[in-house]
Fold this protein.
Amino acid sequence: MRRVLVIGCPGAGKSTFARRLRDATGLPLYYLDMLWHKPDRTTITREEFDVRLQMILEQDEWIIDGNFARTLPMRLAYCDTVFFLDFPTGVCLEGVERRIGIKHEDMPWIEHEFDEEFRRYIIGFPTERRPQMVAALEDAAARRDVRVRTLHARAELETELGDMR
């Protein structure tokens, strides 16, 4: 395990798991949100994002945290392991609620409210985003022998981390 993706619905705990995975493995961690967003809540261009992401992908070792569906095929072409946090919608909504008002290293600002558009994105994730994600993971596992670990509960995250010690 040298090139790892951590993906799943917002609020599932991807960033927390990725940090703990970094601490357990010593692999460098990159947050897609930190690549894409500026502290003033604007974004860099797609072209600049793609260049920065490609530079990371070409490194020998990494953990990349985040979805960014447009770049998932690019990332799957380089990774050897994927942790897919496939949690129930309610768990994800609660996860976002818990982080409101708290500074995290994976975002360049503090969220002070649960944006309604973001809430709708999470509610729609199982039907609108998840099917494409699952299809891409199945394809990567079949064509490139990428190890895909689909986790359905927070307790499974603990088990995965415990297995690395």
Remarks:
- The mean pLDDT is 94.
- The CA atoms of residues 56 and 82 lie 16 Å apart.
- The beta strands are 3-8, 29-31, 62-65, 81-85, 147-151.
- Residues 3-163 form a domain with the Rossmann fold fold (CATH 3.40.50.300).
